[in-house]
Specification:
The chain is of the alpha/beta class. The protein contains 10 helices and 11 strands.
């Protein structure tokens, strides 16, 4: 049985700031500051939106376990490292194949979209980490299927995944806390970037430029997004880069609930747009 008592009040459907539960939640505090943060673009959500994730780690020796992933996951890690430092967390990287458990009080597994059995490399990695016997906290993640394991806490980054982890704690994707101002002006107009992997949604195969294949670092990912005035993409963290850069950004669905739910839970309030497919996003008629 998973262990994960929620540290936040249950989020209700009332409008922001209209009740004590919403006022106290990370989502409520985040949305109260959306107008200011979208103007500055140095951090999409205010720092206190992430306090429920990081404050329970204070005063403990924390090991950070890197998930397997791509440059979008590297963007999450970049933000995670900043937030560890912002909240004065005593942390270091932890590799279960290299490090022993004696120097740590708790382990954290990095955020992303790999909870469940779909991505077996990360499923197996979490199993090895749990086998060390230390408390394990999962940083904000999306679920593709249930994962009923004895985690200390599980943070879930969008509402639809709560169906697979009802004991989870709703918290923002940590990339929304990245502090990295973008000063360069755009040099191109519209950029359409679509994934070329199994998460690609049906009906998008006509276009093949995947930003993950074009960038080797999260800074390059951010710079690529910033070079366009308008971005259409089904890569969640490329869309987040577009929002960080203050660009007009349209997110498209992937092959499960992740993108749609992230849009509804967080990104819509941050000025992101959503379209059912690339043609609709660009105002083109569908093929007959």
């Amino acid at each position: 049985m998973s262990i994960g008592v929620s540290l936040l009040p249950k989020i209700s459907p009332v409008p922001p700031g209209t009740g004590p539960d919403r006022e106290a939640s990370g989502l409520g505090r985040a949305r109260q500051s959306v107008g200011h943060m979208t103007a500055s673009r140095t951090r999409l959500l205010p720092l206190d939106a992430f306090a429920p994730v990081f404050e329970p780690l204070a005063g403990r020796r924390i090991g950070y376990v890197r998930p397997y992933g791509n440059v979008g996951d590297d963007l999450i890690e970049w933000a995670t490292r900043q937030l560890f430092d912002e909240f004065a967390i005593d942390w270091q990287f932890f590799d279960p194949e290299v490090n022993g458990a004696d120097d740590f009080d708790e382990l954290t597994f990095g955020g992303g979209g790999n909870m469940g059995t779909r991505y077996r490399n990360n499923w197996d990695l979490r199993g090895r980490v749990l086998g060390l016997g230390l408390p394990v906290t999962v940083l904000p993640q999306s679920f593709t299927s249930p994962e009923d394991r004895p985690f200390q806490r599980v943070y879930v980054r969008e509402r639809a995944s709560m169906a697979f982890c009802p004991q989870g704690i709703l918290a923002p994707d940590l990339a929304l806390g990245l502090r990295q101002p973008v000063c360069r002006p755009p040099t191109r107009g519209l950029g359409v970037f679509l994934r070329r992997d199994p998460e690609r949604a049906a009906g998008l195969r006509w276009f093949s430029r995947d930003p993950v294949g074009l960038c080797r670092s999260p800074q390059e990912y951010l710079d690529l997004a910033a070079s366009y005035e308008r971005i259409v993409t089904d890569r969640l963290h490329f869309a987040i880069c577009g929002l960080l850069a203050g660009r007009e950004t349209t997110l498209l669905p992937n092959d499960y609930h992740k993108n749609t739910s992230m849009y509804e839970t967080w990104l819509k309030a941050l000025g992101c747009r959503f379209a059912s497919n690339a043609r609709a996003a660009m105002g083109r008629p569908a093929a007959a």
